[in-house]
Write a structure and sequence with these properties.
Blueprint (H helix, E strand, L loop, with lengths): L18 H8 L17 H19 L10 E4 L8 H14 L13 E6 L3 H11 L4 E2 L5 E3 L12 E4 L4 H4 L10 E2 L1 H17 L2 E9 L7 E7 L2 H10 L5 H5 L6 E6 L16 E5 L4 E5 L5 H17 L3 E4 L1 E4 L5 E5 L6 H5 L5 E4 L2 E5 L2 E4 L3 E5 L9 H6 L5 E3 L2 E2 L6 E2 L10 E5 L11 E2 L2 E8 L9 E4 L1 H10 L1 E7 L5 E7 L12 H15 L2 E6 L2 E2 L7 E2 L2 H13 L7 E3 L6 E3 L12 H4 L3 H23 L8 H8 L5
Parallel strand pairs: 1-2, 2-7, 4-19, 5-6, 5-10, 8-9, 9-11, 14-24, 24-28
Antiparallel strand pairs: 3-4, 7-8, 10-11, 12-16, 13-14, 13-15, 16-17, 17-23, 18-22, 19-22, 20-21, 25-28, 26-27, 29-30, 31-32
Helix pairs in contact: 2-3, 4-7, 12-13, 12-17
Keywords: ATP-binding, Cytoplasm, Decarboxylase, Gluconeogenesis, Lyase, Nucleotide-binding
Catalytic activity: oxaloacetate + ATP = phosphoenolpyruvate + ADP + CO2
Family: Belongs to the phosphoenolpyruvate carboxykinase (ATP) family.
Length: 635
Amino acid sequence: MKEEICHDDSSAPVKAQTVDELHSLQQKKKSAPNTPIKGLNQSAFGSEVDRNKQQLQSISASLASLTRETGPKVVKGDPSKQADTTNVAHASQFQHQHTTPNLNISDSSLKFTHILYNLSPADLYEQAIQYEKGSFITSSGALATLSGAKTGRSPRDKRVVKDETTSDELWWGKGSPNIEMDEQTFLVNRERAVDYLCSLEKVLVNDQFLNWDPNNRIKVRIVSARAYHSLFMHNMCIRPTPEELENFGTPDFTIYNAGKFPCNRYTHYMTSSTSIDLNLARREMVILGTQYAGEMKKGLFSLMHYLMPKRQILSLHSGCNMGKDGDVALFFGLSGTGKTTLSTDHNRYLIGDDEHCWSDHGVSNIEGGCYAKCIDLSREKEPDIWNAIKFGTVLENVVFEEHTREVDYTDKSVTENTRAAYPIEYIPNAKIPCVGPHPKNVILLACDAFGVLPPVSKLNLAQTMYHFISGYTALVAGTEDGIKEPTATFSACFGAAFIMLHPTKYAAMLAEKMQKQGATGWLVNTGWSGGSYGSGSRIKLAYTRKIIDAIHSGELLNANYMKTEVFGLEIPTELEGIPSEILDPMNTWRNKDAYKETLLKLGGLFRKNFEVFANYKIGADNNLTEEILAAGPNF
């Protein structure tokens, strides 16, 4: 009998003579895009060659020195891998066609700068782990990174070019986040950043979009030196399709992130080795001396706060979700108010967690991702964020167990400001595309540690504008003696660090849109009741969720209301599922005199904060300003 042989796992030998050839078979070559460029009638190969040349020409122009007037020789691909001779040839051909002879030749002009263009998360993981110390894959698959010495934004080092246009348009002076610099200083810093980036063997380039509204989309280019920064922006901006990338063209705005290289402290306007510079006329941003990735995200948000109002579109620092019937709610709130928790609702679609636009067509998310705080994160409290921390997610400055790579979210050894950046589609109930109809409810959140604001108040338009401009919450601060007391915090428009125009301009636009669309304003206190911090207790999250549900359903609109003293807020007398006595904060205080004293104290803090806005006229007359002032505390 002939012996039978099992051939189940037998196959023909591989078509490779060397290990390198075997590796080349492992990675499938990218096919040529099948969407032709408008106006070109060439073969697929010829079109791809032209597209590559056009992309390289655009990137080289972005990296051009203003003194040498030419960009560097650029070539696509990682220099550590086998050279792509075809691309090098294309780059050489491109350089010969588009550069002019220059007697002031420099070392950087003699070399190729390798461009890592719109890399995938997998590619960026490899770049980070191989070349960036402090990069690790955690047990969940996320990429843990370090942002260097800076673990948060540096608002005192942020500068905006003041020129003939911006001197009139932007908000300057007391209370403003805009610190001026002149054009010449910006160009000095730009030259420093570009020279640094061009001196590197390779730089990373992301071409992406801002704003899910297709009619008001902004094209952005991010040039950076770290894979961490490239992956962060890959997640936070809107990711183009291959077809959109083909026809990307010239960007509307460019970021030069040379954060690993410091600015020159002897340069005019510099106060440290860090400088984040915004030039609205040139549509450029330069980052020197900080590797914290959040500077890029918020720099682009500042840009949108300038560009969108010019189109009669309101830019907002808010969360946004939508019910299954299409009712949209905006959530405003500073850190610790519960904005992320309350806007993330399994019964509603998430449009976005942080930055939005409100146009004549409705609302749209500015970003393509979420940037969530991780300190004390748990699966039980924030299951959506927990589950979003997987392959592709950037984890900033977290601490993990060396062997298992399990992240300890309670560990503050590096910083308390640990963060996760992930694409919005990692949230199961995210609405893609991230757009929705006009908002029905505008919810202002405050964590009042003084314990005198009601759990919920219905606001008229003037009150909505007043509290929107105020942007109040209260933090709990420790003293040397261990005594803890509330500290009032005000941030205009709930995002003072990012706004470019005077707060009253955004407030007027908000009121106009709310009035036109019939939206209702609400003030929700997620803080203390029955006393200030230390004597009272935090309002239960379950009660706050019931309040938010009643706002969404319209139940609160039909409730009976009474008016409070000092702030003149309308509060419901009863609401199903919530003890009636807590709806009026005075009822929860045992010492009524202490309540009135604390109420007057908080009212005084509001008045003092609003002094900087009181003399600012809105429109042709001063009626609207007086109406807003009258909506504040009255005693």
